[in-house]
Please model this.
Amino acid sequence: MFFSVLFVLVVVQALSESPPAPQNIHVDNWLLTWTPASEGDTTYTVQYSRFNNRKWTNVSSCVHISSNSCNVTSTKAEAEHGCVRLRVRAERRGLPSPPVEACSRHGDTCTPDLSLMPGPGSLTVYLTMNHSLAQEYGRHAKYRVYYGKEGEPLLANSTKYEDAEASVTISELQEGQRYCVQVQYRYFKSSIGLPTCTQCELIPESKKDSNQTVILVVGPIMVPVLLIPLIAYFLICKSERIKQWLRPPYELPEDFLESFPEHHLPISSSSPTEECWDVISSISPQE
Model:
């Protein structure tokens, strides 16, 4: 009896579990592909949403398919400017997974074209003001830039984004951390077309910290390099003066002259002015 109840519980739990959602959903030249998150009897359904319409409609050729790709060219004619949003959901035993929205790898009429430039504590997202939707809708067509640390959900996180008409710089980012960006067109409160696929960049450290590191490394090396030539100069060119500085002071003893009474100069009866002599102060050898 116990094993029968346990078997029933296991079967019911297996039947009640929704399949995992598909991953890496992207569009390339109107071919939608994704990575299956499970195997077995799982099928997939592709849906699209028209511009300025929140209703999702099944793509007729991609309902309950077992493959991991779908040609969605037909959806381009279903919306203004050919701008549609696409998503995929898995289904197993009648239970669907949460739908996952697709992204585009290449910029086109309905997907922004962007480039990233990281800086110390910031990330600049370069976008152009001259795009087809801006020409049609003017300043009402904008960009929504979703951002976050690598691994964080971007489109699902409605708190980290910037709305801009052109390029935007995201500041106060953590240095040494990778940040990712997705961009999508916006018209008033509606999203237009496919968002870009995730692009990531490493935020570099500030130059101030780098300079301090260089000083700490180079400083101990430069000090002896500068001191050695200076010490050599003084030892070679200033040796006599150094000897004078190092020579200890001396004084004649008080009884030094008294000990040599016989060596005094003779006293002449003539006046000093009548005697003539030359004082030799120094003698230099002749070459």
In short: Residues 207-237 form the longest helix (31 residues). The longest strand covers residues 178-187. Residues 5-15, 269-274 have pLDDT under 50 and may be disordered. The two ends are 129 Å apart (CA to CA).
